[in-house]
Design goal:
Elements: E1 7-9, E2 41-43, E3 60-62, H1 73-77, E4 91-94, E5 101-104, E6 114-116, E7 119-122, E8 125-128, E9 156-161, E10 181-186, H2 198-204, E11 222-224, E12 237-241, E13 247-251, E14 267-269, E15 272-274, E16 301-308, E17 314-321, E18 326-333, E19 343-349, E20 354-356, E21 367-370, E22 376-379, E23 386-391, E24 399-405, E25 414-421, E26 427-430, E27 444-447, E28 451-454, E29 460-461, E30 476-479, E31 485-492, E32 500-512, E33 520-522, E34 535-540, E35 545-549, E36 562-565, E37 568-572, E38 591-594, E39 601-604, E40 616-620, E41 623-626, E42 646-650, E43 656-659, E44 671-675, E45 678-681, E46 687-688, E47 702-706, E48 726-730, E49 743-746, E50 749-753, E51 773-776, E52 785-788, E53 801-804, E54 807-810, E55 832-835, E56 864-867, E57 879-883, E58 886-889, E59 908-912, E60 918-921, E61 933-937, E62 940-943, E63 949-950, E64 964-968, E65 976-980, E66 992-996, E67 999-1003, E68 1008-1009, E69 1022-1026, E70 1032-1035, E71 1047-1051, E72 1054-1057, E73 1079-1083, E74 1092-1095, E75 1108-1111, E76 1114-1117, E77 1123-1124, E78 1138-1141, ...
Parallel strand pairs: 92-99
Antiparallel strand pairs: 1-3, 2-5, 4-5, 6-7, 7-8, 9-10, 11-12, 12-13, 14-15, 16-25, 17-24, 18-23, 18-25, 19-20, 19-24, 21-22, 22-23, 26-28, 27-30, 28-29, 31-32, 32-33, 32-34, 35-37, 36-38, 39-41, 40-42, 43-45, 44-47, 45-46, 48-50, 49-51, 52-54, 53-55, 56-58, 57-59, 60-62, 61-64, 62-63, 65-67, ...
């Protein structure tokens, strides 16, 4: 029979009659484990059905208690034993199949099964129930190794387990406490791009399984379901039908490591969502920053935000969110909070495919939007006042935000934001850094340092910036070629021995130019050849000598490696001593290692257990002397280092028996018993089970007590029947009634039967009643002391008497008697004591030889009544009875019958233990409901008359007043119901829309009530509707490719149709929808050709909207890229030189401004506004146009107004408008509105309240236009533009037209197009110089016939500018940028520079001209020009040096600046620190 241990119990269903186990060892019942491997045997007799008293079905691991807990006695007694004796083998029935009948697995009955009278089964034998098994508590075994990871990537989980088998719990022992399994993260690397979502993979495993659900297709496809799943169910596998909205739970748990949801880093482990970081590690605190970088600091991205509020029927583009964006938040705020404003968010991909609310079909309810990769966006549904799309993770494709506007065309209010990676500066390796030092003093090499520089300004930065780039080779050059360096032996010593082999020592030096007349010794590091050895072998002729040695000394150590020594003498052939130098030193051995074997060491065993289970004890261990191979004698180890073999131990303080004082005897006469409490406690007072203390040392808790024999007095209370056993129970003592001195404390006393129920006090009348009140003394109240007097004389001369003395409490030093509460009552001296204990001589009272027949006691010895002490009161409070023993005794204390019954003392007396506690209660509280049925409560306490509150056990529980009762206020309002309004018309004119209605809660009288008064199920407020089919763009099939090899084109027709095969309709009905492409490229195969077409960059579109065109150059080139005649190339494959662009239709319309204030403060007047013709650009910004471009009636520019009767005593007065709260995107401007009298005195607004309709507005909308990008980089991101051209930017609160260059790169730059052209924007350094520089011919004007030569200024030149580069952050023009400059003559001259080398006579010829007209910019007044050179003349605003004049020539607004500079030689240029700064003119 195997050991019992943790049992996995598989409980049998009540409907099963038998469990047939396999042939391997099987556990059928808790506590039984079989090692039999016999085949099952069959018995065809009847098998009883087990009663249905099993625990829940399912495998459960338990300790091994006696299984009587699982099977009722009746069930166990009916287990059949047809072939074996009781308990030996268990038989079960197999009710089905060929092997029908009763079968056995050769398993014994479960331990604990009753098998006879007061017997049960134990390990196959029927034993007496008195047999007690020793309980063995279980202990944990070692942890297993971690298993395989649940995932191969993306963050999985692996487990390690341990078993409760060291030892296993047996015989009812306790099971192990603690966790059985531990887990940790694994394979946290990110999955390869394009991998499926892990939850999606799990759902896909059920593809094609419809589970017999009605309505599901046979080839159903399952996808994950996230939205709408409860938080507690996120780790269950909910999957949705891909073609519908229905979803089901397909598995109760997802695979470990599955993310809990798309919006969290937490992962599922064992069906529970566990905390994890963005690094996919459990309990990690790593989090993604707003840029989506795990553990980032928000520095790698910036937040882009914008708004949109233009209205146009159909789908309208709002913005494009680029690939790589994170933290996306898009909101559409309903018009004035309306849900039905007929504006709906929509999303589409860059290829035109809608992923949300496309094709005029709107989703009302919450859903998930999957984009490229595993990113999921959440959509709130359109049935919200704030429609929202949001997500935190990175998207891997461009998404276009759109708004669908239908119905009443309320203006949308869209606000969006997202984070986008910041473009990092570009770096590169520069191999032309500074030269390093020469590597050698002679004939060396020097290298240029390879440095990492920033491309835009060539600034040297840390090499870490370029670590990802290939480092170029190092530029080298030879150096110090006019010298030579080598090792030189400067000095050599004599041989170290006279004979034999010795050494010589040499001095080696590194010398520069050793063959010259002045060689120089340099550092050894400069000599590259191997350094010659400083020692060299030498030998001398030896005479016949030898060494003679003394014996070896004793070894210095016996083990562990010691040394031994000897002396040596050098002798010649005659045995005479000679110098040691005459002998071979290599043979002189005078020391040697000895005893190098390891020393033995002390080895100890583990400590034994402590000799006690509590308190102080000792533990032991053994120590052995071991030499590493075997045990040796103890004497071989050092005795001083021998480890301790005994050590004190302490297992905590021991519990001990504590006992209380003896209680009262159960009788007042005769023989009885008394009890006391004996408990097992720790020293700190914690009460333990009695088994924790030493049973042998337990104090007795019961002892006999005996009084005088009881008198045969008829009891006032009949004793209880013999079969009734009662006892007095007492409660805890209350606090003492005083804080010092002597007081009272009370407790609850009741009569209880053997079951603990309250019995009538008469049932305990035969028992002494415990006192319910006693005196107490917390502490003495004062510093009094006890004083005693002398003892009085004993009142008797023989026998037993009592003498007394005076005892009083007094204060020290005073004679006044104090209260006894001022003294410690426990120290009070006795005031009575027994006296004269000598027996009395009774011979003088009667004849010492009485008559044998006389039984009378002499009359001289009279009998009298004697009384015992009073017993306890029969009641703990109010009136009761107390009893005492009364007995007639003679003078010797013997019982007598000669007492007078008339003088017999009373055996019973009334007693009063103080007032009884009563139930006290307060007033009823308020009803719990404001109408209808409710409940009200009050406080009820058990309280003494002095106000002290007791526990409820102190009063009669059955008499406790109610503390809760029902209540009812006025009836609740009449029955309310939902009132439904009529349905509205469909929200769309075609496609699917919504109908809405009003639903309110009203009572039977029609009064509108809050919703809480109506039933919870509210009628729906909207329903779907369909208004006919909407037309769509329908493309025809593509044509065949236009070429048979190389790149060609395919075309098709696209029509606006109703239905796929419907007739074409007016294309205007498809406006607002993206029209499919009409043309696309194709390639059949490569054409074999030597000449190919070369294409240039696309130019800017010729129109900002409407039909435009972009052009590029196309040339035919040979294999060396040289242009050749186009006839050499395949003309059919010639690339297009122009393509259509900007297919978006232009929107040109009348745009009215805001109405002005009424031109009269009172009476009739007029309001005015401006009306301009504006073109709505593709960037949603309004651009002014000539009025001829706008069609339709021009809105009125004037209307009448009337601010009230001028005879009125008050009127409204307004202040100036403030600046708009925002520069774009829609803001508010505010002003003050005050009520004043005709004289301008400020009045209360109530005085003007008679005409509220005339009150002017205090705020108005402003800057409604959308926000534009503020740089060309943002143009790339927001508008997805990748071509160079003009764009409108929002710069420092102004609109500026900027030319964006290098838009195909990651670092585009901004330029201002100069409307004046090259003729008005140039810079010149004049090339001619006078032969006589002291003149100024022709009055300073330039003349080609001057006596001049052309070798004037070395930097002479003339440069004309078409565009100039601008830094928008600091509004500074880069004067040295020549991308759009043309040098007409000589060298390039920076913008705004001029000079010459013409004359010393203030005759400047160099000139520059700056014309910013038409750009909206002007040169800032702070811009200054500096000069440099000799004899300088400058007609500009500032000069430095001698012979300088200053005369600024600039227009009033700074848009035009002209200057002339010259000298001999001299130049002028903008301040090199502040540069050429510009400003906005409006």
């Amino acid at each position: 029979m195997g050991q019992s241990g943790p049992i996995v119990a598989t409980y049998i269903s009540p409907h099963e009659r038998c469990v047939v186990a396999s042939t391997r060892p099987t556990t059928l019942y808790p506590g039984i484990q079989s090692n039999y491997t016999e085949h099952p045997r069959t018995y065809t007799g009847p098998c009883p059905e087990l009663p249905r008293t099993y625990p829940p079905a399912g495998p459960t691991t338990y300790p091994a208690p006696l299984p009587i807990a699982y099977y009722s006695t009746a069930a166990q007694e009916t287990l059949p034993t047809p072939m074996q004796k009781t308990c030996k083998r268990l038989w079960c029935m197999n009710a089905d199949g060929i092997q029908k009948g009763c079968r056995t697995q050769h398993m014994p009955w479960a331990d604990g099964t009753p098998c006879g009278n007061n017997k049960f089964c134990l390990q196959g034998d029927c034993v007496s129930a008195r047999s007690k098994l020793k309980e063995i508590d279980g202990g944990w075994g070692p942890w297993s190794k971690y298993g395989s990871c649940s995932r191969t990537c993306g963050g999985g989980v692996k487990y390690a387990t341990r078993q409760c088998n060291n030892p296993r719990p047996q015989n009812g022992g306790k099971f192990c406490l603690g966790r059985r399994m531990k887990f940790r993260s694994c394979n946290t690397k990110e999955c390869p791009p394009g991998s499926k979502d892990f939850r999606e993979e799990q759902c896909a495993k059920f593809n094609g399984q419809h589970f017999n659900i009605n309505g599901l297709p046979p080839y159903v496809r399952w996808v994950p379901k996230y939205a709408g799943v409860l938080m507690k169910d996120r780790c269950k596998l909910f999957c949705r039908v891909a073609s519908g909205t229905a979803y089901y739970r397909l598995k109760n748990k997802v695979i470990d490591g599955t993310p809990c949801g798309p919006d969290t880093n937490d992962i599922c482990v064992q069906g529970m969502c566990r905390r994890a970081g963005c690094d996919r590690v459990l309990n990690s605190k790593a989090r993604r920053d707003k840029c989506g970088v795990c553990g980032g600091d928000n520095s790698s991205c910036k937040t882009v935000a914008g708004t949109f509020n233009l209205i146009q029927y159909g789908y309208n583009d709002v913005a494009t969110i680029p690939r790589g964006a994170t933290n996306i938040d898009i909101r559409q705020h309903g018009y004035y909070g309306r849900v039905d404003d007929d504006n709906y968010l929509a999303l589409r991909r860059s290829n035109g495919e809608y992923i949300l609310n496309g094709n005029f079909v709107v989703s009302m309810f919450k859903r998930e939007i999957r984009v490229a990769g595993s990113t999921v966006l959440e959509y709130s549904g359109s049935d919200n006042a704030i429609e929202r799309v949001n997500g935190t993770k990175r998207i891997d494709e461009d998404i276009v935000i759109m708004v669908l506007s239908v119905g009443k065309l309320y203006p949308p209010d869209i606000r969006y934001s997202y984070s986008f990676p910041v473009e990092k500066p570009q770096f590169r390796w520069d191999p032309n850094g500074p030269w390093g030092e020469c590597s050698k003093v002679c004939q060396g090499q020097k290298k240029k340092k390879v440095q990492c520089i920033r491309e835009d300004d060539s600034h040297v930065v840390s090499d870490q910036r370029c670590h990802h780039l290939n480092k170029p080779g190092t530029v080298t050059s030879v150096c110090n070629m006019d010298c030579e360096i080598m090792w030189v032996i400067a000095q050599t010593s004599e041989c170290s021995v006279r004979c034999g082999t010795g050494t010589v020592t040499r001095v080696i030096q590194c010398v520069k130019n050793p063959l010259s007349s002045q060689p120089i010794v340099v550092d050894d590091k400069y000599c590259e050849d191997q350094r010659p050895s400083e020692r060299e072998r030498c030998s001398g002729e030896c005479l016949p000598t030898h060494w003679e040695f003394t014996p070896w000394s004793e070894c210095t150590r016996t083990c562990g490696g010691g040394s031994r020594f000897r002396d040596a003498s050098c002798l010649d052939s005659g045995g005479n001593p000679v110098s040691h130098d005459e002998c071979d030193a290599s043979n002189r051995i005078v020391d040697q290692v000895c005893n190098d074997h390891a020393c033995p060491q002390w080895v100890v065993n583990d400590w034994t257990g402590c000799s006690v289970t509590c308190g102080d004890g000792v533990r032991h261990r053994q120590a052995f002397c071991h030499n590493g191979v075997q045990e040796v004698e103890i004497s071989d180890c050092e005795a001083d280092s021998r480890p301790d073999m005994k050590q004190p131990c302490n297992l905590g303080e021991c519990p001990s028996w504590h006992y209380g004082s003896w209680g009262q005897c159960t009788v007042t006469c005769g023989r009885g018993y008394r009890l006391r409490a004996v408990v097992c406690r720790m020293p700190k007072g914690e009460e333990l089970e009695d088994s924790e203390c030493d049973a042998a040392a337990r104090h007795v808790d019961i002892e006999d007590c005996e009084f005088a024999p009881c008198l045969e007095i008829l009891p006032t209370t009949p004793p209880p029947p013999a079969w009734v056993r009662t006892e007095w129970r007492t409660g805890s003592w209350t606090e003492c009634s005083v804080t010092c001195g002597q007081g009272l404390r009370q407790r609850y006393v009741s009569c209880r039967d053997i079951h603990g129920n309250v019995a009538d006090e008469s049932a305990c009348a035969h028992l002494p009643s415990p006192t319910a009140q006693e005196t107490c003394l917390p502490q003495p109240c004062g510093g009094g002391q006890w004083r005693t007097g002398e003892w009085n004389r004993c009142p008797v001369s023989c026998g037993s008497g009592t003498q007394t003395r005076y005892v009083a409490c007094v204060f020290p030093g005073e004679e006044n008697i104090a209260d006894e509460i001022d003294c410690d009552p426990s120290q009070r001296p006795i005031s009575e004591q027994a006296c004269n204990a000598n027996p009395c001589d009774i011979s003088r009272y009667y004849n010492p030889t009485p008559s044998i027949s006389s039984n009378r006691i002499p009359t001289g010895l009279t009998a009298k009544w004697r009384t015992g002490p009073w017993g306890g009161c029969s009641s703990t409070c109010a009136g009761g009875w107390k009893r005492r023993a009364v007995e007639c005794q003679d003078g010797n204390g013997h019982p007598s019958s000669n007492c007078d019954d008339r003088t017999r003392p009373s055996e019973m007396a009334p007693c009063n233990a103080g007032p009884c506690p009563i139930w006290n209660y307060g007033q009823w509280g308020q009803c719990s409901t404001s109408c209808g049925d409710g409940e009200q409560t009050r406080l009820v306490h058990c309280q003494l008359p002095n106000g002290q509150i007791l526990s409820d056990h102190g009063c009669e529980v059955l008499d406790k007043p109610l503390n809760k009762q029902p209540c009812r206020n006025h009836p609740c309002p009449r029955a309310a119901r939902w009132n439904r309004g009529p349905w509205s018309t469909c929200s769309v004119t075609c496609g699917r829309g919504l109908k809405t209605r009003e639903v309110v809660c009203k009572d039977s009288a029609g009064v509108t009530l809050p919703h809480r008064h109506c039933p919870k199920k509210q009628p729906r407020r909207q329903r779907k509707c369909r208004a006919g089919r909407c037309p769509k763009w329908r493309p025809n099939p593509w044509s065949t490719c236009s070429v048979t090899c190389g790149k060609g084109a395919m075309t098709r027709e696209v029509h606006c149709r109703l239905g796929r095969k419907g007739k074409p309709v007016d294309e205007a009905r498809c406006q607002g929808m993206k029209k499919p492409r009409l043309r696309r490229s194709c390639q059949v195969k490569d054409c074999p050709a030597l000449y190919t077409w070369q294409v240039g960059k696309w130019q800017k579109c010729t129109a900002a909207c409407g039909e435009g065109m972009r052009q590029r150059t196309v040339t035919c080139a040979d294999p060396l890229a040289n242009p050749v005649d186009e006839s050499y190339c395949d003309t059919d494959g010639r690339p297009e030189t122009s393509v259509d662009c900007n297919e978006r239709s232009c929107v040109v319309r009348w745009t009215p401004g805001d109405w002005s204030e009424c031109d009269k403060p009172c009476g009739p007047g007029f309001e005015h506004r401006s009306v301009t013709c504006q073109e709505i650009s593709p960037t949603r910004w309004s651009v002014p146009q000539p009025q001829s471009k706008c069609s339709g009636a021009k809105p009125t520019t004037m209307r009448s107004c009337n601010l009230g009767d001028c005879r009125s005593f008050t009127r409204w007065r307004t202040g100036p408008w403030s600046e708009c709260s925002v520069t774009c995107g829609g803001g508010l401007a505010k002003r003050s509105v005050q009520c004043v009298s005709l004289t301008g005195t400020l009045k209360s607004s109530r005085d003007c309240s008679r005409k509220p309709a005339l009150r002017p507005d205090s705020q108005k909308p402003c800057n409604k236009g959308p926000c534009l990008p503020n740089s060309c980089s943002e143009v790339q991101k927001l508008e997805r533009a990748r071509y160079d051209g003009e764009f409108y930017l929002h710069v420092h609160g102004k609109i500026l037209k900027v030319y964006c260059r290098d838009m195909e790169t990651s670092r585009p730059s901004e330029y201002i197009t100069l409307a004046g052209g090259e003729g008005r924007n140039y810079a010149e350094i004049y090339q001619k110089s006078l032969f006589n520089p002291n003149q100024c011919p022709h009055n300073g004007s330039r003349n080609s016939s001057c006596a001049c030569h052309d070798k004037g200024h070395p930097d002479a030149g003339h440069t004309a500018y078409n565009k100039v580069r601008i830094n928008l952050d600091i509004m500074q023009i880069s004067v040295s940028d020549m991308q759009f400059a043309r040098t007409v003559q000589g060298k390039a001259v920076p913008f705004g520079n001029a000079g010459d080398c013409y004359s010393t006579a203030r005759c400047p010829q160099g000139a520059f001209n700056i014309d910013l007209s038409g750009t909206g910019l002007g040169v800032s007044p702070d811009t200054q020009w500096h000069t440099q050179g000799r004899f300088i003349t400058a007609d500009i605003n500032r000069s430095q040096g001698i012979f300088i004049t200053a005369d600024i020539h600039r227009s009033q607004d700074g848009s035009v600046v002209q200057g002339k500079c010259g000298g001999y030689c001299g130049t002028c240029f903008p301040n090199p620190v502040s540069g050429l700064r510009v400003r906005f003119l409006r």
